[in-house]
């Protein structure tokens, strides 16, 4: 691989990885608060993306950049639907279940319901979604002969900014402190007057918003399929597990690392584009078999 | 319905029956049976190009079994949800691999097998054409065989181990049930059965495509087993029957599957509580002479367990700071100390639940520091818990039997094969267990016992392991005076039988009544050690308990 190609791969990988990081951040946040692995997390992305397209463009999206008004509406709907789906997921599939097999099955069911419901309306194999954010797609020439779309840098910037903002808010804000208290000891937090149930609900909504952002940033990059959300969600889980499950910074860093490794593998002559999904899923299976709570977990 | 359809449905049932071992019996949420079916189907068709068909099937099935064993490796040490996630990821990985390498796996169209399905062995001069009828017979035999093996397993000693594992993994480990090995083995068997089902279907139809091994199949098989109920060998027949009622194609299938999953979950407990309880058939246990290893208690006064220089830190805070302790046969040793002095940590280190940072633990001269809980039980150390941790759906007798399993080297799979010696060993287990029931009602469930008897049952379960050394964490906690007296008598009996008993206790009067010797811990160090009277008279102990001015 030439230097130019490598540079291009690293840049695209970082952008894609920042998006994985947002997915991972939402997943890890929910896990930290209620120790629940959310099997429907990837389907929040699909739900938010497709509903926002449906609400603003209809079921036959055309690859023409939407007008400013439509674009704003699409972004707003995606984030709102993301938040709403996250909250509903908590209320319907997590909160009612005390037993583990209960919430595992319920979140799997929730994901299935989202996929099937979206699939009833969007019946085609794959869709092309226009970019509501109007990110520029001009190509830059990189030293060494690589070429890079400005959009990649914009996606990287936005995703990183959102991720770091949320991470900082978790550390600094009152709500973030309440979340940490709930994560450490839910009963004690409740005794201290923290409305724990509402805090958890907000966390799931935040995870949904992050999924919405991830959808907005990644959907225009290529064909979008109804079941593709699961794979994107599982890649987010893999990213979260590259750090320590429950760590926000670990999730963002894990996302970037996974994105770069994936992009390098895909552009290498050794592995090639076939490995785009295979590599991340294999990493996930291996990490779960070896260190289920993450590579940097204290409990092996 | 044609023969081909029926044979295919029976192969689907085979995959569900296999999954039942991992889900219904070992209580593991496995969401990736479809991946193992894919390994069997694709593996067989790919390998059959180079190998005889029989060998190809065998290789694919063994490969899937190994994969199942490996996937369960880490997840079995933690909570089941991680295994669910890992197997779910595996289901999607299988589909991703099939899509990524169309050259090998034929892409959307899948693989075709044009060769006639003939099992042949030139060496034996055999050539056997596999018609759909033969498939039907073969699949039916496999299903019947698997159901009867599962049924035998559920009734035998392994079924008891699995029930204990489902109902209380921690308590099961404390009496020597090899939980991790059982989980891995059941998942490996489930995977092998899934692969066999996949191989059979692929050879029967002569084709396999990604759509037939999609993640939805994994969910459907999971639902089928869930509908069948816990530890029910026939359950998957009902579950698969319901799944087969779903339409073959189209968007509705997923929604209906989701609906079934929710229904199965919501109805599981109410339905189970209305079913008559399945009991192990009550056979009269016969004691057996000779042939089985029963550790006789060591002579009185001999050191059974010795701990030297134990240190354990939690996040920089020393919980144990160089503790020495000796437990002798025939003695009740009390472990005293203020809250947070390291009593429970010491007990956990001795029981093998926590590995010490430094120091050694030897039992009867053998270094057991590196052994986990299950290994320590076999080496002769069993424990109880501060809370009452029992198996809610096992009777008093079964509690003792789970414990006694550690005594008899019955093996894991011998009981299944109906080996006579395994059956005799099982009888011995039951006879041994019944000696430990004291005066508790052997057929009562724990919930039917008064609180004090529940605490006593916990001690009896540990004693039934035959461990020379019993570690009891606050056995008298919350007991009335009468119950405490009963417990004290039991502990004296156990010591009289040659057990070394360690009691973590706050109640000084109880300690004075039951213990011979005592150790007082403070901040992870030994403050005083000796006979109970010596320790009580020790000024340092009085100061630690009553303050300087006293």
Describe how the helices and strands are arranged.
The complex is a heterodimer of chains A (300) and B (550).
Chain A: H1 3-34, H2 41-56, H3 68-94, H4 100-121, E1 139-141, E2 147-149, H5 150-172, H6 174-184, H7 186-191, H8 196-218, H9 228-242, H10 248-267, H11 275-290
Antiparallel strand pairs in A: 1-2
Chain B: H1 3-25, H2 33-47, H3 53-75, H4 80-100, H5 102-105, E1 111-112, E2 118-121, E3 126-129, H6 132-155, H7 157-167, H8 169-174, H9 179-205, E4 207-208, H10 215-228, H11 235-245, H12 252-274, E5 303-314, E6 317-328, E7 332-336, H13 343-351, E8 358-363, E9 366-367, H14 373-379, E10 381-383, H15 396-404, H16 420-435, H17 451-463, E11 469-473, H18 481-496, E12 500-504, H19 508-514, E13 517-522, E14 525-531, H20 532-537, H21 539-546
Parallel strand pairs in B: 7-12, 7-13, 10-11, 11-12
Antiparallel strand pairs in B: 1-4, 2-3, 5-6, 5-8, 8-9, 13-14
Please, what is the average pLDDT of chain B? 83
What is the CATH class designation of chain A?
Mainly Alpha
Task: Specify the CATH architecture of chain A.
Answer: Orthogonal Bundle
**H/E element string of chain A?**
HHHHEEHHHHHHH
Helix fraction of chain B, binned, reads 40-55%
According to DSSP, the number of beta strands of chain A is 2
Number of domains of chain A: 1
The radius of gyration over CA of chain B amounts to 28 Å
End-to-end CA span of chain B: 89 Å
In percent, how much strand structure appears in the residues of chain A? under 5%
Spatial shape of chain A: globular
């Amino acid at each position: 691989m030439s230097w130019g190609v490598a540079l291009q791969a690293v840049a695209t990988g970082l952008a894609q990885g920042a998006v994985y990081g947002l997915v991972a951040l939402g997943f890890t946040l929910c896990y930290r608060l209620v120790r629940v692995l959310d099997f429907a997390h990837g389907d929040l992305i699909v739900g938010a993306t497709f509903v926002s397209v449906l609400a603003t463009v209809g079921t036959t999206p055309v690859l023409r950049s939407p007008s400013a008004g439509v674009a704003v509406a699409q972004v707003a709907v995606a984030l709102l639907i993301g938040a709403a789906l996250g909250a509903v997921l908590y209320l319907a599939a997590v909160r009612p279940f005390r037993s583990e097999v209960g919430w595992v099955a319920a979140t799997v069911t929730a994901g299935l319901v989202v996929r099937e419901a979206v699939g009833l309306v969007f019946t085609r194999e794959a869709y092309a979604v226009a970019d509501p954010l109007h990110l520029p797609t001009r190509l830059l020439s990189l030293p060494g002969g690589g070429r890079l779309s400005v959009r990649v840098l914009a996606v990287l910037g936005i995703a990183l900014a959102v991720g770091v903002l949320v991470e900082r808010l978790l550390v600094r804000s009152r709500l973030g402190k309440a979340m940490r208290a709930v994560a450490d000891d839910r009963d004690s937090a409740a005794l201290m007057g923290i409305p724990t149930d509402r805090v958890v609900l907000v966390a799931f909504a935040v995870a949904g918003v992050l999924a919405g952002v991830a959808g907005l940033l990644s959907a225009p990059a290529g064909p979008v399929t109804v079941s593709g959300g699961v794979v994107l969600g599982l890649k987010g889980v893999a990213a979260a597990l590259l750090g320590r499950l429950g760590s926000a910074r670990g999730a963002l860093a894990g996302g970037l690392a996974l994105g770069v490794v994936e992009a390098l593998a895909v552009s290498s002559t050794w592995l090639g584009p076939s490995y785009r999904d295979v590599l991340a899923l294999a990493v996930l299976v291996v990490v779960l078999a070896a260190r289920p709570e993450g590579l940097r977990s204290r409990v092996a | 319905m044609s023969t081909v359809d029926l044979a295919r449905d029976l192969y689907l049932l085979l995959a569900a029956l296999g999954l039942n071992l991992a889900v219904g019996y070992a209580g593991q949420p496995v969401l990736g049976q479809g991946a193992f079916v894919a390994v069997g189907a694709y593996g067989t068709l790919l390998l059959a190009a180079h190998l005889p068909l029989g060998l190809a099937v065998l290789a694919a099935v063994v490969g899937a079994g190994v994969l199942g064993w490996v996937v369960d490796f880490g997840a079995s040490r933690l909570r089941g949800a991680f295994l669910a996630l890992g197997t779910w990821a595996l289901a999607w990985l299988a589909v991703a691999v099939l899509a990524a390498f169309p050259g090998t796996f034929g892409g959307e169209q899948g693989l075709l097998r044009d060769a006639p399905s003939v099992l042949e062995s030139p060496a034996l001069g055999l050539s056997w054409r596999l018609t759909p009828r033969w498939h039907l017979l073969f699949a039916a035999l496999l299903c019947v065989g698997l159901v009867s093996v599962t049924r035998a397993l559920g009734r035998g000693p392994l079924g008891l181990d699995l029930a204990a594992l489902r109902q209380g993994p921690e308590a099961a480990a404390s009496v020597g049930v090899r939980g991790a090995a059982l989980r891995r083995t059941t998942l490996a068997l489930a995977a092998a059965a899934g692969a066999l089902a996949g191989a059979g279907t692929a050879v029967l139809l002569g084709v396999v495509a990604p759509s037939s091994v999609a993640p939805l199949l994994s969910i459907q098989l999971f639902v089928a087993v869930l509908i069948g109920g816990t530890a029910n060998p026939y359950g998957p027949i009902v579950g698969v029957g319901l799944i087969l009622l779903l339409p073959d194609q189209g968007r509705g299938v997923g929604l209906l599957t989701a609906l079934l999953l929710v229904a199965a979950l919501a109805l599981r407990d109410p339905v189970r509580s209305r079913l008559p309880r399945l009991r192990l058939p009550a056979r009269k246990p016969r004691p057996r002479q000779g042939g089985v290893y029963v550790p006789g208690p060591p002579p009185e006064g001999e050191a059974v367990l010795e701990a030297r220089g134990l240190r354990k830190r939690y996040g920089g805070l020393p919980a144990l700071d160089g503790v020495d302790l000796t437990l002798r046969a025939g003695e009740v040793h009390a472990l005293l100390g203020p809250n947070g002095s390291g009593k429970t940590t010491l007990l956990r280190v001795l029981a093998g639940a926590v590995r010490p940072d430094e120091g050694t633990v030897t039992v009867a001269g053998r270094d057991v520091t590196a052994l986990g809980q299950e290994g320590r039980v076999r080496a002769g150390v069993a424990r109880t818990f501060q809370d009452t941790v029992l198996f809610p759906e096992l009777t008093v007798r079964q509690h003792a039997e789970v414990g006694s399993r550690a005594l008899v080297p019955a093996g894991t799979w011998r009981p299944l094969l109906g080996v006579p010696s395994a059956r005799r060993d099982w009888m011995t287990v039951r006879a041994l267990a019944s000696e430990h029931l004291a005066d508790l009602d052997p057929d009562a469930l724990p919930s039917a016992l008064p609180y004090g008897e529940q605490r006593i049952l916990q001690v009896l379960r540990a004693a039934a392991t035959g461990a020379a050394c019993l570690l009891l964490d606050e056995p008298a906690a919350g007991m009335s005076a009468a119950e405490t007296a009963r417990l004290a008598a039991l502990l004296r009996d156990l010591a009289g039988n040659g057990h070394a008993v360690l009691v973590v206790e706050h109640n000084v009067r109880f300690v004075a009544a039951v213990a011979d010797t005592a150790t007082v811990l403070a901040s992870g160090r030994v403050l005083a050690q000796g006979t109970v009277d010596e320790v009580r008279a020790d000024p340092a102990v009085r100061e630690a308990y009553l303050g300087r001015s006293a």
